[in-house]
TrEMBL record:
The chain crosses the membrane at residues 7-26, 32-58, 70-96, 102-123. The keyword Transmembrane applies. It catalyses: ATP + protein L-histidine = ADP + protein N-phospho-L-histidine. This is histidine kinase. It comes from Halonotius roseus.
Length: 375
């Protein structure tokens, strides 16, 4: 009912002003070509605009209250502009002007005011729509973070109990050590998924308060966190950039782990067995096996074209047809990954306003490029 009433008001004003304008043209109320053009033709165009807005209101799926607000703006504009013109028209009428001239002035003012009101109304409902979308997005983010926190809390407790009991079982010489290793690996994978899920949920929030950070220091810290040695990583830049230090640290950690995991894939004889792959070497110790780091080289440097940095390795690289999919959550070509690492990398980059792409490194491996000025 409210919607139809709003549509009726908009269309009614448009049709009424158009009819009165046509009547004025036929009655000769518009003097000369200029008067016909500025008052007659333009008034018809304004009326057509209002009628078009009524048709749009009829076909759009916007909420009923948006249409009511649009009609209110249209009516308010018509009354406001028409009211000012009425004062002038009455003074002219008192001075002896013809009634048709009074009608012409009011019709022109009403049509222009209605069109102006439509413009303000469309701006108003679009502003409100954007505000509603922002509020809904914030609610979704809050729900996602709440979900991730609840899941992580509910999973961490039984995992802690399970790992404690595994340590007790490990003291029993009669238990198969390989079986224990597989169970511990499963526990580590669940812990990794918990941490990655939290990072994925929170990493995409826009960085609103970045601070200047030294890329070299953050890269070195990230490499130490993943347990790398001093020979594998090369930092070839003194770039300073505005970023969230914690999230940039997580971004680099994930890229380094990705390089290490895919370095493990080159080992022969593992038959897809994540335990034989060498990651991690000792469960409960996050440092990668020495065999994984043998021959592996990772470089962090500054882009030669544009502002930004890159992380490159000398592994097997990423096939061109897979380069878009690898940033999707759940996509992993490694038997030891959670499939969330590179998705987190892209979320963190987007939160900073950066773009990330992957290409071939000079050494034949993968090169991840981050552009700080994507424009």
């Amino acid at each position: 009912m409210r919607r139809q009433l709003g549509i009726g008001v908009i269309a009614g004003i448009g049709v009424a002003t158009a009819q009165l304008t046509v009547y004025g043209i036929i009655s000769g109320a518009y003097d000369g070509f200029v008067g016909l053009l500025t008052d007659g033709v333009l008034t018809l165009l304004f009326s057509a605009l209002v009628i078009g807005a009524g048709y749009w209101a009829q076909t759009t799926d916007r909420p009923d209250w948006d249409i009511v607000r649009l009609a209110a703006w249209c009516l308010a504009g018509s009354i406001a502009i028409g009211g000012f013109e009425l004062l002038t028209a009455l003074s002219l009428y008192a001075a002896g002007a013809a009634e048709i001239e009074l009608l012409r002035a009011l019709t022109t003012a009403a049509a222009r005011g209605a069109a102006l009101g439509i413009g303000f109304g469309l701006f108003d409902i679009e502003r409100r729509r954007t505000k509603r979308r922002g509020a809904e997005l914030e609610r979704q983010v809050d729900r996602l973070e709440e979900f991730a926190s609840v899941v992580s809390h509910d999973l961490r407790s039984p995992l802690t109990v399970a790992k404690g009991n595994m340590e007790l079982i490990g003291d029993n010489d009669a238990v198969d050590e390989e079986l224990i290793a597989h169970i511990e690996f499963a526990h580590d994978r669940m812990s990794e998924i918990i941490e990655d899920s939290l990072a994925l949920a929170r990493g995409g929030n826009e960085v609103t308060d970045p601070e200047p950070v030294d890329l070299s220091e953050i890269a070195t810290q990230a490499w130490q966190t993943v347990g790398g040695d001093d020979e594998t990583l090369t930092v070839d830049t003194e770039l300073r950039l505005d970023a969230d230090p914690e999230r940039l640290l997580r971004l680099l950690e994930n890229l380094f782990r990705n390089a290490i995991e895919h370095g493990a894939e080159g080992d022969e004889g593992d038959d897809g067995d994540p335990i034989a792959a060498g990651l991690p070497d000792d469960y409960g110790d996050d440092e990668p096996a020495d065999s994984v780091l043998d021959g592996l080289s990772i470089t962090v440097g500054r882009l030669s074209e544009g502002e930004g940095f890159y992380v490159a390795d000398n592994g097997d690289g990423i096939p061109e047809e897979e380069r878009e999919d690898i940033f999707e959550a759940g996509v992993s070509s490694s038997g030891t990954g959670s499939g969330l690492g590179l998705a987190i990398v892209r979320r963190i980059a987007q939160a900073h306003g950066w773009t990330v792409s992957v290409t071939d490194a000079d050494g034949g491996g993968a090169r991840f490029e981050f552009r700080i000025d994507p424009e």
